[in-house]
Amino acid sequence: MVEGVKVPRKEGETALKLLKKLGLVNTAYKIAHSDDHILIPFKRSPEVEERAQLAQSIGPFEETTFQPTPRHARKTTLNILGDRLPPHLLVSVPRSIDIVGHIAIVELPPELAEHESVVGETVLEAHPRLRTVLAKAGKVGGDYRLREYRLIAGEDRTETLHMEYGCRLALDISKVYFSPRLAGEHWRVSRQAREGEVVVDMFAGVGPFSIMIARARADIKIYAIDANPDAVAYLERNIQLNRVEGKVIPILGEADRVVEEGLKGIADRVIMNLPEKALEFIAAACNALRREGGMIHFYEFAAEPNPVEKTEGDLRSAVEGAGRRIKQIYLAKTVKATAPREWQVVVDAFII
């Protein structure tokens, strides 16, 4: 039983606001209802002056004791695992997971290897809409930037449909590169594109940049290039899913060769989200831009100290080596941490 106050329903909102202001409401419990009254649980007994304020605000009231219903904390992986793992292992439980469609992706340290199925099943319990939990089993690598995964709970199904700012993206996480942590970048760049532009997305993957730009603008043309046949197959599917046929042109091939063979001098904007190798394709990006200039969104991995300044310097040198120059840098920032003391950095620069 807890102490509380019983007030008429019509005075309930007024009483609740005042009690919250005074710090008297016990938020561990739900407010109860009784006939034409509500019962608000106290965190502590009110002082004489506080009772006087309440009476002045709502008129006569009744203090009482009652058994309120506890507010249950939202189930999280960590608080569920508190009853399932030895206490010394809780500090090693990942505090964040990547969610791609129905799939959760976790990075487990070695000390949790023997408990991976427990962690996996707990993730599914904490996130009822998910169906699959994968553990990272290697680093991103290879020409197509793929990662190996290990099933630790749920359905053995790596193909999914991911939603991002209203865009539907079909993909198979085992066959294509995709990071849900770049959703903010996809949205940010899509809002910079202007009506009537021509965009070259040099490393398009399944199309998160291209699809979002196409959905945001009525009059736009985006050439979406990728060397991974599986990525281009999903890109073609996503163009149909999002009804942007004619706006997004999917192209299978190496970006520099595709530009050389048909996209020279046409672009108002070039997206270069291949942080490992984007620097090698600066000449192709410069060739794709119109003669009068255009915007490049350049991504690179850079280590501390000063990762942003390093990326700016790398881009400036490469652009000058391609026979052009940076007129203005509009934005340069870290996007996300990728390893201890290493960052993914983006630079938005206008090239002439």
Describe the protein's topology.
Blueprint: E1 2-8, H1 12-21, E2 32-34, E3 37-41, H2 48-58, E4 62-66, H3 77-81, E5 98-100, E6 103-106, H4 116-126, E7 132-136, E8 149-154, E9 159-164, E10 167-172, H5 183-192, E11 198-201, H6 208-216, E12 221-226, H7 229-241, E13 248-252, H8 255-262, E14 269-272, H9 282-288, E15 294-303, H10 307-321, E16 326-339, E17 342-351
Parallel strand pairs: 6-7, 11-12, 11-14, 12-13, 14-15
Antiparallel strand pairs: 1-3, 1-4, 2-3, 5-6, 7-8, 9-10, 15-17, 16-17
Helix pairs in contact: 1-2, 5-6, 8-9
Rg of Cα set: 28 Å
Structural class: alpha/beta
Give the topology string: H per helix, E per strand. EHEEHEHEEHEEEEHEHEHEHEHEHEE
Largest sheet: 7 strands, mixed
Q: CATH superfamily membership of the largest domain, which one?
A: Vaccinia Virus protein VP39
- The CATH architecture assignment of the largest domain turns out to be 3-Layer(aba) Sandwich
**What is the number of E strands?**
17
Number of self-contained structural domains: 3
Weakly predicted, low-confidence segments:
none
- For this structure, the quaternary state is single chain
Give the rounded overall mean pLDDT: 93
Shape: elongated
The CATH topology of the largest domain corresponds to: Rossmann fold
Quote the distance from N terminus to C terminus. Answer: 74 Å
CATH class of the largest domain: Alpha Beta
Trace the largest sheet across and list its strands: 13-12-11-14-15-17-16
Helix content: 25-40%
Count of separate DSSP helical elements? 10
The percent range for strand residues is 25-35%
